Amino acid sequence: MTAETQRKAPVRPLLLAKDHAVLILLAAVIVWLSLASPAFFTSANILNILNQNAPLAIIAAAGTFVIVSGNFDLSTASIFAVASVCAAWLAVETGNPLLALVAAPVVGMVLGALNGLVVASLRIHSFLATLASSMVYSALAVLITGGALITVDVDGFADFGRGSFLGVFIPVWVLAAVVAALWFLLSGTVFGRHVFATGGNAEAAELSGIRADRVKVLVFVLSGLAAGIAAAIAVSRISSGQPQAGAGMELQAIAAIILGGTSIHGGVGAVWRSVAGVFLIALVGNGFDIMNVNPQLKDLVTGLIILAAVALAAVGRRAR
User: Fold this and answer.
1) What is d(CA 207, CA 155) in angstroms, rounded to the nearest whole number?
2) Which helix (H) or strand (E) holds 38?
3) How would CATH label the architecture of 18-319?
4) Pairing state of beta strands 164-165 and 150-151?
């Protein structure tokens, strides 16, 4: 072994910590909660956690594309709200639950595409563009409903959000399918490589023949589509649409994505890490509920976990 190899060898554990910080923390939290409460590590509780957090995990999985491409999407909660109220309104007006639930992802795609076109064509920073669009979309949700709750009493409408198949909630199956598709799209396709290249250096990507503007539009379309799918699950689950639905969801999704190790500067990230980040935060909340711990401490613990993950990632970067 050369002197250079000897100097490099000790940093491998640090690199491992950087690449798998969220899994290390997730495993630690699972072990801790399993020892603290026998009610935690049961199939019923685990499935309930997956079911309750499926909408947020779907949004975070697609949001990974946006951040890896070097952008931000602050409008996902507002898109979620518009898609929710549109689905509820259509269900009430037409009495067709399938049409209403399919409309939610379509609405999400259209609004996401508008975001992408504004960012790509007008050259406005995505942070400002989606901050503005979130206000517009929120107002649109209020206009559609008049600020009131739309209650849905249509046969079959609640099946998508509350039903189960082979003993597993339907939203969990949807989550698995969406995550698998997005995981493959980002890590195993030419489009995924273009997303990484655009986030790493948009100008260099353009020079290499990648249409960075088209990539930007498409990642926002994916983000909007995911918000629409999440809205379809949520509105079906509670059988009502409201303009305030999903408030704060965009920040929760971004927190989970960053917690998972995706770089806010773009060019680095993975779908599975973002989903792990969602469930790491969810497990902390679930653990507090099971153990009847003061809920005011939840944000403190969650914040410390995020700091720990960021610190592990930073140590890993320095080790390189």
Assistant:
1) 54
2) none
3) Orthogonal Bundle (1.10)
4) unpaired
- Measured over the CA atoms of residue 88, residue 50, residue 185 and residue 220, the dihedral's sign is positive
Alpha-carbon distance of 304 to 308, in angstroms, equals: 6
Q: Within 10 Å of residue 264's Cβ, how many Cβ atoms?
A: 12
CB 244 within 8 A of CB 47: no
Q: Among 14, 38, 46, 4, which Cα is nearest to 314's? A: 14
User: CA dist 25 to 128, 162, 304, Å?
Assistant: 33, 31, 11
Rounded to 5 degrees, φ, ψ at 164 are -140, 160
In 3-state terms, what secondary structure has residue 266? coil
Domain boundaries, the chain: 18-319
Residuewise pLDDT in 10s, the chain (320 residues): 444 444 444 455 555 555 677 788 888 888 888 888 787 888 888 899 999 999 999 999 999 999 999 999 999 999 999 999 999 999 999 999 999 999 999 999 999 999 999 999 998 999 999 999 999 999 999 998 887 889 998 889 999 999 999 989 999 999 999 999 999 999 999 999 999 999 988 888 888 889 999 999 999 999 999 999 999 999 999 999 888 888 888 888 998 998 888 888 888 889 999 999 999 888 888 877 777 777 677 777 777 777 776 676 666 555 55
Q: What residues does 150 pair with on adjacent strands?
A: 241
Longest CA–CA separation in the chain, Å: 75
The DSSP code sequence of 29-64 is HHHHHHHH-TTTSSHHHHHHHHHHHHHHHHHHHHHH
Helix, strand, coil shares of the chain as percentages rounded to 5? Answer: 80, 0, 20
User: What does the alpha-carbon distance between residue 8 and residue 208 come to, in Å, rounded to a whole number?
Assistant: 33
